[in-house]
Amino acid sequence: MQKIIIRGLFITAMLMLPAIASSAEANALLQEAEAVRAQELSPSAYKAAKEAYTQRWTDKANVLAQQAISNSLVMSRTFPQLIESRDRMHVSGAIDVRKDLAERAEEAFGQVVAAVEAGDMRRAKKEADNAKLLTYQAEVVAAREQLTRPIAKALSDSRKEKGNVYAPRSFASATDGMKKVERLVNSNPAARGQLYNDSRKSLEMARTSQEIGQLGSLVRTKPETAEAWFYSRDNDMAAIAKTLNVNLAGAKSHEERVTLITDAIGQLTGQVNSLKASLAELDDTRTSLGLARFKLQQKRDAEAKIAKLAKLFDPTQVELFLTTDADVIIRMKAMNFPSGSAIIPATSYDLLEVASKAIDLFGDRVVRVEGHTDSVGNDDYNQALSERRAVTVKEYLDARFAENNRTITSVGFGEERPIANNEKAEARSQNRRIDIVLVAPPIPAN
């Protein structure tokens, strides 16, 4: 009896193997289709494939899934600018700003997709012209709302506080900055890195003028406030002087105090330069230290800086760690690009600004932006996607550090360098990442 039961179980298992294999193949093809955005770029074939798999029409489903993948790749290769413009339209929140325009743009995009799915590339290219115009218009309207309106509001608030009267330079700088952003939004909304940086700077200047306006108005209505402000300023200067070990007792005016502090900083800078010159003369000593000790010192210096930065970072969003080569890696864990897109989500710019503070602290290091994907989907597609995402982040950092002459490069590794097993969805999400690497300087030459 036991043998009969075992034999029955064995036969049942053998009969189930094809179904299990088919299910695994279905999952793999659907995952690949989703990786190339088939839900958006070939929705009809993708939906039909899912329904066929549900009905266990495996052969038909496999063909439909492959067709969805093929259509999506055709869309990506033929209309990359249209797709990116649409992505920017979405991340800018166009649907909340001009719903009618966003819906028209989406409908026009759907016409392009339908033509590709029908195999009519001539019609697809014709429809793409209209879709490009509408997505561009929606993108500009949304970017204006997102990037220039906050500056305009801050300037209005500043004017109410007489910021334009008490802080004319700051107010004028913010006004000029807003006009610059407006011009760039209209001419090149794709330059999101520069747009976000210029918008941020202008907004800061507008808020500064508002604060100065509030102070000026307060002093005018309550003259005694000027005395409190004066002593507050002197207390700040005294704290700086104490750190520099400078005695301000003999200074008779604010200008003299500033001069004493400036001279002290100049002397310290001279001492630093002198020490650097002395180090440059220690070729023999430096050589005897060897690469290992040099790297050890680099690591110690980096660890000290990382400890200073620890309070700035939420470890669930940004991770900062040191490699054996003394490189510092800023892992942007919470930078979640839209599927298949290289457009930075609006919520991720704050993360990039925090990362920029770390880059500032490591001023002597070359910055390398690395893009990574999971293993789902077409290898070439993943490689290109990782490169595009790395370039997008690099462009933001280029704009952020435009005045610092920082060397910033980018590279995409596709699926080559996973940090987790690609078998599980949670692990795959870890592999889809941006790493900002602060490359350790090489050992000085003799």
From TrEMBL:
Superkingdom of source: Bacteria
Residues annotated as domain OmpA-like: 324-442
Key words, A-Z: Cell outer membrane, Membrane, Signal
Chief localisation class: membrane
A GO CC term assigned to this protein in UniProt: cell outer membrane
Location relative to the cell: Cell outer membrane
UniProt-listed Pfam families: OmpA
UniProt cross-references to SUPFAM superfamilies, sorted A to Z: OmpA-like (SSF103088)
Signal peptide: 1-24
The protein's name: Outer membrane protein OmpA
